[in-house]
Amino acid sequence: MSLPSELNANARLIASAPDLYIALTNALDCLHDILVPCEGDNCPCILHEIEAALAKAEGAHTHGSR
Ligand SMILES: [Zn+2]
Hints:
This protein is mainly α. It is elongated, with a radius of gyration of 15 Å. It has helices spanning 5-34, 46-57. The relative contact order is 0.11. Helix 1 crosses helix 2 (46-57). The structure holds zinc ion. Zinc ion is lined by residues 38, 43, 45, 47-48. Residues 38, 43, 45, 47-48 line the site of zinc ion (ZN).
């Protein structure tokens, strides 16, 4: 392919997005079982980090922070 490397990297990222999304969703389920639930909208823990990333992938229309 003659795509510029940045486009190429973006294309690979987009192509892998569904797998990443599923993997993160499964990881979130596991972490919910392991970690103590926390509260707070600005919590920086890994659970909220993953939830924020998933919300972004979904278009950020869930979990109420519009
Ligand atoms: Zn948290």
